[in-house]
Amino acid sequence: MAAKKKGGNLISSAGLVTYYDSEDRRAIHIPPKAVLISAAAIGIIIAVLNHLF
């Protein structure tokens, strides 16, 4: 005899919360390319400094 689910999707979400509707127009928006470029630049700077010292 199989147990029936009651109460909606509470069990299937497993504690994960989505924030799709909480976008704020006043928030700072950073494009993904800017994040990747800055991360690569920081990595290169660290590698150069590590090589020099």
From TrEMBL:
Per the record, the coiled-coil ranges are none
Where in the cell is the protein located? Cell membrane
Q: Sorted alphabetically, which keywords does the UniProt record give?
A: Cell membrane, Membrane, Protein transport, Translocation, Transmembrane, Transmembrane helix, Transport
Give TM regions.
Answer: 34-52
Q: Cellular component per GO? A: plasma membrane
An individual GO BP term: protein transport
Q: What is its main location?
A: membrane
Which residues face the membrane's Cytoplasmic side? 1-31
Specify the protein's topology with respect to the membrane: Single-pass membrane protein
What does the record note on quaternary structure? Component of the protein translocase complex. Heterotrimer consisting of alpha (SecY), beta (SecG) and gamma (SecE) subunits. Can form oligomers of the heterotrimer.
Q: What is this protein for, i.e. what is its function?
A: Involved in protein export. The function of the beta subunit is unknown, but it may be involved in stabilization of the trimeric complex.
Q: Which family does it belong to?
A: Belongs to the SEC61-beta family.
This protein's name: Preprotein translocase subunit SecG
Q: Which organism is it from?
A: Methanoplanus limicola DSM 2279
Q: What is the lineage of its organism?
A: Archaea, Methanobacteriati, Methanobacteriota, Stenosarchaea group, Methanomicrobia
